Amino acid sequence: MSTTTSSTGTSSTGTVTLSGFFSGMDTENILTKLKAADEIPINSLESQSATLTSETDAYHFISSSLTNLKTKLTALNDPSLYKSKTAASSTSTVATATVDDTSAVSGSYTVNITQVATNSALQSGTSTNGKITAVPSGSTTISSISGMSVSNKTFTINGATITLTGSETLDDGNSTSTSSVIGKINNSSAGVTATYDSSTGKFSLTSNTNSTIVLGSGADTSNFLTQAQLFNTGSTTVTSTVGVGRLSSTATLSSAGLSTTPTAGNFTINGVSVTYSSTDTLTSLISKINASSAGVVATYDNYTDRLTLTSSSRGAQSITVADGTSNIGTALRLTSSDSTSTIGKTTLFTVGSDSTVRTSNDDSLTEAETGIKGLTITALATGSTTLNVTPDTDKIATAINDFVSQYNSTQNLISSYTKIDTSSSSTSSDVTAGLLAGASTVSFLPSDLRSVFNVVVSTNSSVKMLSDLGIDTNSSDNTVTSVDSTKLKNALTNHLQDVVDLFTTYGKGIVSKLGDKIDSYNSSLNGSITLREQNITQQQKTLADQIKQMQARVDSEIERMRSAFATMESAYNQSSSTLTSLQNLKTSSN
Predict the structure, then answer these.
(1) What are the start-end ranges of the H helices in 113-216?
(2) Are 452 and 513 in contact (CB under 8 A)?
(3) d(Cα 446, Cα 474) in Å, to the nearest integer?
(4) Strand 358-360, strand 347-351: pairing
(5) Residues contacting 19, CB < 8 A, separation 6+
(6) Strand ranges of the sheet holding 272-276, from the earlier edge strand across to the other edge
(7) Taking the CB of the first residue and of the last residue of the chain, which one, N or C, has fewer CB atoms within 10 A?
């Protein structure tokens, strides 16, 4: 503890310190060295405690690795692992299948699909103009039409460039006008006569010279031809496939351009109520429909300007829409007499040699529909396929490889703590020992784990021991060199029950034998590693108590000596003052 001393050897806080002010002795430095000497045994104990902490960490890591190895063993002891099956389709483009491990029976099953279920759909009305957006009149300014990118841009007809400013109307009825799109086309050098039908929103172009009309060029900057749905046909006349005008997906539906202005409220799809508010856009309304439980997916086709409701699942089912407090169904022309309803198809198929045509409402053919236990078939296309149900040997192989991988990881970890490396040269010889080298707790652990490779479950079995699966230990250490995948695959395919017995036979199998070895080290009750960790914990507690007591004695002794030195300094100061007084008295008497 550092303090400030006064000339009297006492700090302003009253704590005695030493500076050797009167005696000239560096008493504080003396005490520091004495304390350091007294604390040497304490430092030794602290070093022992730190070593024990490192040992505890090492045992903890080994214990965790053993736990992971036991987990891999437990997976190999699970009966469901060996009951798992897989279904392979000879023509996966026709059908695939999933298997219920508990009820499926290995075998080959042929399915012939003659019709695949389709989705039902309801499309908005297809009257004269085939659109749900209001048809723009001839006096409509072209820049006000949703989706039109026309301002100060150009398009080309027969090599003639027509420039639009955006202020033009569609058709002002004056064939010589340059303030309408129709007028600009007719007064250009394109050599065509253009007309606009305000009842359908369609444009028509007719060649004045009976020549093929060529539309567009690479230099065009306007999307007019695309939006007007005018495309090259290789003929002397061209007419829009769909009229101009599309719903805006970002504007509220009341101002998005619908022929019928919608009112806020609710409407139903398949009897499920969906609420439309005045702030809804086409995008938000579609989101509401798709998020509902109506069982449909709504989409808007910007090309045809039609809304489509498609059933979420396949099969023959109707889609119904009815207005409630809102007329949005009418506005979207989903309830009109000219809306198009398509009822989905069912799946038709036969199984094996039975010519009976069976039916499924959707594309998922269940056990009840096929008569094949534990198999669910997904129909993808018409055609025939054979489904081969076999044990899922890949899944079993993965579990075995996971066990081997963890076994190697555990052995390598143990080796890193217990090995002794000796390196020598002409000038030196060094030995590096692992933290637990020579520790009796784990000295036999590597060989105990390796002993499982000598386990023979049955001499009458085709798979007697792990080496029959292509699993052998390394000649130079305790790890597995590699797994012979060909040998393992053969055993799993042709001798599966023998593999099951090798791992799971109670008391004799790999799981029991290796599990018992692991428990002898890792059991929470009496495992040797567990007991060693408990012993270390007690040692550390004892060391901590010893360190605390020894430190208290050292601190007390140092304080006692500091007090003694302070007393000495005080006495020295007093004697020095007396001597000075006597000398002064003698001098004055002379």
Answers:
(1) 181-186
(2) yes
(3) 13
(4) antiparallel
(5) 5, 9, 27, 28
(6) 272-276, 265-269, 321-323
(7) C
Q: What share of the chain is helix, strand, coil (3-state, %, to 5)?
A: 40, 20, 40
d(CA 467, CA 559): 72
- 3-state SS, residue 188: coil
What is the per-residue pLDDT for 8?
A: 39
CATH number of the domain at 121-125+249-342, please? 3.30.70
In the block, residue with structure tokens 């002010």: 21
Q: Are 145 and 166 in contact (CB under 8 A)?
A: no
The partner residues of 272 in beta bridges, in order of sequence, read 269
Cα–Cα distance for residue pair 158/331, rounded to 1 Å = 40
- Structure-token pair, residue 346: 């069912």
Residue 66: count other Cβ atoms within 10 Å of its Cβ.
Answer: 23
How many beta carbons lie within 10 A of that of residue 1, not counting itself? Answer: 8
**Single-letter amino acid, residue 453:** F
Question: What is the torsion angle, in degrees rounded to the nearest 10, for the CA atoms of residue 221, residue 226, residue 230 and residue 233?
Answer: 90
pLDDT digits (tens, 9 = 90+) for 333-385: 999 888 999 999 999 999 999 999 999 988 999 999 999 999 999 999 999 99
Is the separation of the CB atoms in 5 and 11 below 8 Å?
yes
What does the block give as tokens for 16? Answer: 């005695």
Identify the bridge partners of residue 349 per DSSP, sorted by sequence position. Answer: 113, 358
- Taking residue 274's Cβ as centre, other Cβ atoms within 10 Å add up to 21
DSSP symbols for 331-365: HTTSSSTT-EEEPPPPEEEEETT--PPEEESSSEE
Give the angle subtended at the CA of 88 by the CAs of 83 and 91, to the nearest 5°: 165
Q: Nearest 5°: CA angle at 109, between 105 and 113?
A: 140
Burial tier of 480 (Cβ tally within 10 Å: 0-12, 13-18, 19+): buried
CA distance 479 to 412: 7
Task: Provide the H-helix boundaries in 77-204.
Answer: 79-83, 181-186
Instruction: Provide the CB-side half-sphere exposure for 310 (13 A, CA).
Output: 12
Do the beta carbons of residue 153 and residue 164 sit within 8 Å?
yes
Q: Which of 308, 372, 344, 379 is nearest to 112 (CA)?
A: 379
Residue 70 C-beta-side C-alpha neighbours within 13 Å: 15
In our burial notation (b when 16+ CB lie closer than 10 A, e otherwise), range 410-423 reads: bbebbeebbeeeee
CA–CA distance, 260 with 474 (Å, rounded to integer): 82
C-alpha separations of 420 from 38, 63, 434, 501 in Å: 36, 21, 6, 39
pLDDT digits (tens, 9 = 90+) for 520-549: 999 999 999 999 999 999 999 999 999 899
Distance from the first to the final alpha carbon of the chain: 50
The burial of 47, by beta-carbon neighbours within 10 Å (0-12 exposed, 13-18 middle, 19 or more buried), is given as exposed
